[in-house]
Each structure stands twice: as structure tokens, then as C-alpha cells.
């Protein structure tokens, strides 16, 4: 295969004359075999076998339907370049991540043209159940019968979900850090730090709401689906705004405790949902580990 991360292809040029595909989700997930954790690897290796599950392809990415959609629109941007886990992401992936964000912006713009009431989140689960890094592009209605538990919602609406723009900014921080350059360490996502977010409170994050339902998922869901306030703003899609205060979070999540020094401090956008480096992880208090979110 000629595909790979080293190809110099301008994504904008590639998308210029592209006809936007019809969003038409398959009836179910890709049948799971014994190696279900590797399903995304199979898709990038032999996409021709999974056409019904693929939304579109570019030279660097396969965009597929999430097998367990948690909202009206739910896609996965999967790089063709193998990156097995979030902990493998490093500054060498910066250009790839920026292309993924450009692609997400292109897709979201067109999905919103069809459903102007929707807003979108784009990012990655910090603890992934599947091999191969992938970025969720999900509408924030979370109106799906697949959203069955608190952790399903929290996996997209707490710092467990790392917005793509934040990943990019964090890696740029690493690259610019004095003496690190291309030798910068990969990002780290220690389960002890991120899994507790799945056990946190359920707070309506529609713009201007903030109602807290503790852990009462059914009540929360009923409210969220009928709350008349606008959906939260887009997440993970924008160029980060520099110098923004880290005091408030669009999803109403508490700011993570972190050392705000040097490049680390610079990366405090999107409500200070910071991503660990080895140093920050060492400084974070240990917390009990929880289950993962399953699905895609
Ligand atoms: Zn509400
Ligand atoms: Zn996922």
C-alpha cells in the first residue's frame, strides 16, 4: 500500500473538490471476532472489506461510523499511520493531528449545514478500549439508546475526553520546550488519573444550565434530552485561543489540578483539561481505577 504518514499531500487540496458523503450509518457494528480490540487496525489495513462502515477516506485517514453511536452523528477519524495507543502520541504526530483537525472541521461544517441545531465535539478517549488512536467526531445531542450509563456520557463530557485541539496544543508545548524539540517525551494518560472522571457527577453542560444530578443517570438523561438551552459550544475543533483564562470550562468540569509552569501552563485551554506528561502524572494524586467505556 502506498498510504502512510510520510506522504506529502495537502489535505485542503485533497478536499477541495470532494463531494460530501451522505451520512448513512450502518445498522450495527462490525461483527466482533476474538481480536475485537484490533478492529480499527483491520479497517485501516483492508478498508475495502468494510465499505458499509466507512464514511469517507483520504490519503491519511479512514473516517468510519462508530459501531456504537452515542449521538445523532458519530464518526471516528482513524489515521492510516499506526499509532497503537494514546500514550504513543508524540511531537512527530503533530502534522497528522493538525490534518485530522482540518478534516474534522471540514466534516462538521457540512454536517451542521444539514443540522444547524447540532454542535460537535472532536477528540480522543484518554484511556482507549480499542487499539489504534482515533478521534471521535460526535454531535453533542447524545440522543442515542446506546447512551445507557453515566460513564457513556462522562467519557465524552469530562477530562476523560481529550479535545483534539488540546492534544495539538500540548504537543506543540512539548516541541517548543527548551531542550526537548523532537526528543520530547510522548503524552501520558495514566488510568489512575483519568478513569476517576467516569465516576464523577452528571451535570448538564448545555449553555447556561449547569443542573447537577449527582450520579442519577436516568434523571440526568431525561433532563439533558429535554433541556431547552442550547447545546454546549463545539469542542476540540478550533485553533486554541492564546492567553485564555483557565478558570471556566465549557462542559462545567472542574479544572484539573496541575502545575502551570512553562509549556504546561501554556496548554491550559478548553477549561484547563490538561493532559499529563510524566512530570504532571507524578504530581497527580493516585485515585482508584475504574472500568473503561467500551465500544469505539
Ligand atoms: Zn440543562
Ligand atoms: Zn474511541
TrEMBL record:
CC per GO annotation: nucleus
UniProt superkingdom: Eukaryota
GO terms classed as biological process: single strand break repair
Any one GO MF annotation of this record: double-stranded RNA binding
Low complexity: bias regions: 264-290
Coiled coil: none
Region described as Disordered: spans on this chain: 231-296
Pfam families the record matches: DcpS_C (PF11969)
Protein name, as recorded: HIT domain-containing protein
Amino acid at each position: 500500500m502506498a498510504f502512510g504518514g510520510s506522504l506529502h499531500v495537502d489535505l485542503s487540496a485533497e478536499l477541495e473538490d470532494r463531494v460530501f458523503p451522505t451520512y448513512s450509518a450502518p445498522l450495527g457494528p462490525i461483527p466482533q471476532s476474538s481480536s475485537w480490540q484490533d478492529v480499527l487496525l483491520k479497517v485501516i489495513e483492508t478498508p475495502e472489506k468494510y465499505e458499509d462502515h466507512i464514511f469517507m477516506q483520504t490519503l491519511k485517514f479512514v473516517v468510519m461510523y462508530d459501531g456504537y453511536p452515542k449521538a445523532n452523528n458519530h464518526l471516528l477519524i482513524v489515521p492510516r499511520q499506526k499509532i497503537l495507543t494514546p500514550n504513543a502520541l508524540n511531537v512527530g504526530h503533530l502534522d497528522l493531528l493538525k490534518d485530522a483537525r482540518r478534516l474534522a472541521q471540514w466534516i462538521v461544517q457540512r454536517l451542521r449545514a444539514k443540522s444547524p441545531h447540532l454542535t460537535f465535539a472532536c477528540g480522543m478517549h484518554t484511556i482507549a478500549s480499542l487499539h489504534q488512536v482515533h478521534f471521535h467526531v460526535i454531535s453533542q445531542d447524545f440522543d442515542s439508546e446506546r447512551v445507557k450509563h453515566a460513564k457513556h456520557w462522562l467519557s465524552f463530557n469530562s477530562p476523560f475526553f481529550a479535545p483534539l485541539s488540546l492534544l495539538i496544543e500540548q504537543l506543540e508545548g512539548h516541541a517548543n520546550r527548551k531542550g526537548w524539540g523532537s526528543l520530547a517525551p510522548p503524552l501520558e494518560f495514566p488510568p489512575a488519573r483519568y478513569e476517576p472522571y467516569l465516576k464523577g457527577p452528571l451535570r448538564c453542560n448545555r449553555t447556561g444550565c449547569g443542573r447537577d444530578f449527582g450520579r442519577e443517570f436516568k434523571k440526568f438523561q431525561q433532563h439533558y434530552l429535554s433541556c431547552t438551552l442550547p447545546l454546549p459550544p463545539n469542542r476540540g475543533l478550533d485553533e486554541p485561543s492564546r492567553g485564555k483564562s483557565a478558570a471556566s470550562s465549557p462542559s462545567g468540569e472542574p479544572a484539573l489540578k496541575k502545575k502551570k509552569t512553562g509549556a504546561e501552563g501554556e496548554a491550559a485551554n478548553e477549561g484547563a483539561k490538561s493532559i499529563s506528561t510524566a512530570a504532571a502524572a507524578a504530581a497527580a494524586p493516585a485515585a482508584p481505577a475504574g472500568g473503561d467505556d467500551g465500544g469505539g
